[in-house]
Amino acid sequence: MSLLAATALAQQDGAPELTIEASRAIDKGLAHLLSIQKEDGSWDSDGKGGHAVAITSLSLMAFMSKAHFPGFGEYGEQLDRGMKWLLKEAKGRPDGYLGTVMYEHGLATLALSELWGMARDPEDDDAIQKALEKAVDVILRSQNPGGGWRYQPQADGGEDTSCTQTVFHALASARQAGIYVPNETIAKVVKYLGRAQDAATGGFTYVPGGNRKVTAACTAGGAYIAQLAGQRDTEMVNGALRHLKSQAPGIITGGGSYYYYTHYYAIQAMVQAGDEEYAKWYPQIRDALIARQNEKGAWDKGSRHGGSSYTTPMAIIILATPHRYIPIYQR
User: Fold this and answer.
1) Do 219 and 203 contact (CB within 8 A), yes or no?
2) Number of domains comprising the chain
3) Using one digit for the tens of pLDDT, what is the confidence trace for 2-25?
4) 3 lies in which domain range?
């Protein structure tokens, strides 16, 4: 399909903001990801296997955000290899814990839940379900009594907002896909967010009662998971959105080492907030991301966490928001 036809289709689907330039940027980004995929099907942060679980999970979702799935279409073979690599990793971890930190585990759980039902081979689909159920069990048993999560799967390991938003995002996706998640778990997350919210600004802090500095990344992620936890249209969410908008356009045109992570959540919070908020926010981040893409099709400015292999799939997912192909990113 031509870019013009793709844009026309997006307009018919209610997404006139998906410009030809954005479509080109997405396709260039996907081509870059294909160029750095390893022979075993994985992606990593350093060419040596660094954070491969997280980067592979993000990369698979970047392709899925443009309706490319394992075993189907022009990228079917490459994505099938990526999916099978992730399943092999899961099979090698009988305890269900994927990666080296809960950030990785959260992203892998999210990818598995969105892949479930999308594989061409029924055996792969069964393997995805088994891996997903084990991954969710890890999350459930490692929730802190305060309601959050920290770097390792330990219920007594502490909690912070950044890790909590990554993990609960995955849990909400798994629940949406049909995996059982107790209401008590969700209620504890809401209580955690209540403790992490700054009353003066409405933003969220990194650690409740500790580091009280409000950050854009925690505010964006906190607002989004609060929405996923059933708090849409509450003052908890509205206050966080007001604070986030008060920081624009600075956080959109600026930078920082958590730029892509912040906007990965911010755009989804605006989607959940409704068409009016989304229509104001998306064109700004869309144009900012297009301007940041380099000639190779990658996004590599402003990140020291995994380099372009981490920021590129995140940028693609943000840009592809109008497509709404991934269920957890739908309203």
Assistant:
1) yes
2) 1
3) 333 443 444 444 454 789 999 999
4) 1-36+249-331
